[in-house]
Write a structure and sequence with these properties.
The protein is an alpha/beta fold. Helices cover 25% and strands 23% of the residues.
Length: 374
């Protein structure tokens, strides 16, 4: 049985997980146990014609344009003060001093990406979910045509909020889903069948979008699950996301505690993707890592972006705007890696207060380059 666990913030940093039913596990439709076919031919998959909206010429990255865009998304705050510099007490002369400040570590100074990188020149707006479930996100809740129309409308909202940054639509599909039962091998996860992954890739192609394959590894691990998705990751428009919340350890079942991934797991995924990029002459991949607590990602300072792989640390909590911003500040902004993301919940955020608008989110420092709706 698939499970879904939503997240939100505590008044300080995060609020405890919402455990639905007795153990926080939602029983959904029963699906056949399926293993991805490693020999799937990528040539048979539908590909998109994503325009490379990047500052590159003849395969060369314009580093000056890249640096300028990083400064823009760092979202510098202008501070103005008045200081008396001369004159007398009765006739003082003053001057206005203007300075710009931004959180420590932003923009991040790390390796430049290869030409063709989507970030920071674009913003990605993704719809999240699983086709077998109406409870795990937008992607499985509505009919396909409605999902694509909703996403297109949302992309327009973000484009209107920031006309300087082209917006790319995306589908974030839970390709490996944590489970409430052990399954045939005791690892509390289910791998989605080829036809479901292919359907999502085809959906994205209809709106010239990209795809993220999301991993909830349960009692398995990234090193086991990631290679099974290689046929899809060889496609230029398919990227990867990791959900540490459902990466369990010490035999603990999904839903009983918040899981965790280490920087070594994330670096393994980045290096695996980098090899795919090099071997198949692809533009850089994006690796999204969801996070809403400190312990979800250990040794985050050791995560290493690569020329072939751009890393996004995504704030994955729900709650009031104040709670979400607190989580972003403490677990994303204060621990720079490369780029940032921000997740919005159509149901849970509204229940807690209201759904933050693009204009509200774009006031954050740094501005998120990846936006996900569940």
């Amino acid at each position: 049985m698939l499970i879904q666990m939503d997240k939100k913030n505590k008044p300080s940093f995060i609020v405890s997980l919402v455990f639905l039913c007795a153990l926080g596990i939602v029983a959904l439709v029963k699906i056949p146990r399926a293993i991805l076919v490693q020999s799937a031919d990528p040539a048979t998959q539908t590909t998109t014609s994503i325009s490379k909206l990047t500052a590159s010429t003849a395969g060369h990255l314009d580093t000056a344009a890249y640096d300028a865009k990083l400064l823009q998304i760092a979202n510098l705050t202008t501070v103005t003060s008045t200081k008396i510099i001369k004159g007398t007490a009765s006739t003082p002369t003053s001057t206005v001093i203007t300075t710009s400040t931004t959180p420590v570590g932003w923009p991040v100074k790390t390796v430049y990406p290869n030409a063709g990188a989507l970030l920071p020149f674009n913003r990605i707006v993704a719809y999240y979910g699983n086709l077998y479930s109406t409870q795990m996100g937008v992607l499985g809740k509505y009919p396909q045509a409605q999902v694509l129309q909703m996403l297109s409308d949302t992309v327009k909202d973000w484009q209107a909020a920031d006309p300087t940054t082209p917006v790319i639509p995306a589908l974030d599909y839970i390709a490996v889903s944590a489970q409430g039962t052990p399954g045939f091998d005791g690892n509390y996860r289910s791998r989605m069948p080829d036809d479901q992954i292919n359907q999502v890739i085809q959906m994205a192609s209809q709106i010239n979008g990209v795809v993220f394959l999301d991993l909830q590894v349960g009692l398995s691990n990234v090193q086991t699950e990631l290679p099974l998705l290689e046929p899809y990751l060889k496609l230029p428009q398919v990227h990867l996301a990791l959900d540490p919340e459902f990466a369990m350890h010490n035999g603990q079942k999904p839903g009983t505690v918040v899981g965790t991934l280490d920087a070594s797991d994330i670096n393994y995924a980045a290096n695996y993707l980098a090899n795919i990029v090099r071997e198949n002459n692809l533009p850089p991949k994006i690796l999204v890592v969801h996070r809403f607590t400190q312990a979800m990602v250990t040794n985050a300072q050791n995560i290493t972006p690569l020329p072939e792989v751009q890393i996004v640390m995504d704030m994955d909590g729900f709650g009031t705007p104040a709670e979400k911003l607190s989580t972003y500040k403490n677990f994303i902004q204060s621990q720079p890696v490369q780029f940032t993301g921000f997740k919005l919940f159509y149901v849970n955020d509204v229940a807690a207060g209201h759904l933050m608008t693009p204009d509200e989110v774009l006031k954050i420092s740094p501005e998120p380059s990846y936006i996900q709706y569940q």
